[in-house]
Write a structure and sequence with these properties.
42% helix, alpha+beta, globular, 5 strands, two-stranded antiparallel sheet
């Protein structure tokens, strides 16, 4: 039997199927924003864009972006997006980075384990 839950984003009550945390209206809005963001990055004449530029333009939180990125929603544009390494601050492409760490910091962290 499906559960009734409050949408994590807007608070509306909805029938929750599985582990879905958003109502259908918020899911549709989120999917449109993801499509718009992907289109913006793909069509940008710039060689690369920073995540911060993208987040500012689309008024999205970094945490929301990271959740969507790790869910595979920005695979097509990852080779054009950059961010600062979470440890050393070096500018890196997000494609191929693990948890937004540069290769050097990821290797150092792995060696410490």
């Amino acid at each position: 039997m499906p559960n009734v839950a409050n949408c994590r984003k807007c608070g509306t009550l909805f029938i929750q199927n599985g582990k879905k945390e958003l109502c259908d209206k918020c899911i549709d809005a989120q999917n449109k924003m993801i499509a718009d963001m992907n289109s913006y990055v793909i069509n940008s004449p710039a060689e690369t864009l920073t995540i911060d530029e993208l987040l500012t333009k689309f008024q999205m939180s970094r945490k929301e972006f990271e959740n969507l990125y790790f869910a595979g929603k920005f695979v097509r544009v990852a080779k054009k997006l950059t961010t600062k390494c979470a440890k050393c601050g070096k500018e890196i492409l997000i494609e191929g980075s693990s948890n937004f760490l540069c290769n050097e910091c990821a290797k150092k962290l792995q060696n410490q384990i």
